Amino acid sequence: MKPYTVMLIVPTGIGAAIGGYAGDALPVARAIAQVADRLITHPNVMNGAQLYWSMPNALYVEGYGLDQLAAGQWGLRPVHQNRVGLVLDQGIEPELRLRHLQAADAARATLGLELTDYIVTDEPLGVALRTAASGATWGTIQSPDSLLRAAEKLVKAAKAEAIAVVARFPDDCGSEALTQYRQGQGVDPLAGAEAVISHLVVRHLQVPCAHAPALLPLPLEPDLSPRSAAEELGHTFLPCVLVGLSRAPQFVVSGTESSNGGRSTDIWADQVDALVIPASACGGSAVLSLSQTQTKIIAVRDNATRLNVRGDRLNLPVLEVESYLEALGVLVAHRAGISVSALSPQLEQIQQLPAGLTQSVIHRVCTEIT
Q: Going by DSSP bridges, is the β-strand pair 162-168/84-88 parallel, antiparallel, or unpaired?
């Protein structure tokens, strides 16, 4: 029997009620991992700063890689361990840089992760934060070429198989956006820019990548939301990134030498049985691609976001449920081959289709025969 494979997406930087903060979608991922043989998800779901939870059947895939997988352009090749290369932004102050290097050494000594020597970019990356009219966040990088040069050197010279990036982000401790985020009410002001950084590396090098922002510690906040609390525990968000990347699957690019003689463990889009997303965020590339396949798309209403892109407005075959608890029930039924309608007390009678073929179908069949 083929492995039951679920993809869980909570887009970053859109203020998701669950998954829009510091790793607060991890409980959802852990629950789905108990239902599925394989869970495919991304850093925004799995990263909790210094908190993380390793799941043997979870595949940690950067967002651009998820889009390519869903489109059928890339596959995933599970690994036992990656050699992780570390890119540090030249704009990070010496003391803050040392904090991150010590976190990397701690991951080597305490967790047994394999890291290459690190590299510092030849220019400050110059991250700037932006907010769209909807409230969603995004960002820009002043020196993207410097980032790509550093990442490429780690891959070619140090034989890194995955890339962790630490960029200096602007400190904005007095802003209203940060205050709301720390109280569990706003949009993560960093998330959109983080996605830009990892997308660049994955698109350019086709290797796993994730990002951890470098920031000065914030003053204590007595009214801190539990959903934001993981980011307040120390001087770095790097540990969860290193753990995730250490076992992130490698990408297999369709039509290239790496895809020739594919392995039985490789995962492609046609093996994704179900996709779970917030109901108001159905416009992403992965959702649109998988809507053209047999993948069952489950949209969760109570994970509200700043977007309003629902599946019915796009004529997508989406099953809306109220909560992730309900989504788990749908996944259990789907895996068992049970129609969800059979679990309802109201079940309509089976209906008869009109006899005969439509004229368009008859014309197409006759054309194919001739």
A: parallel
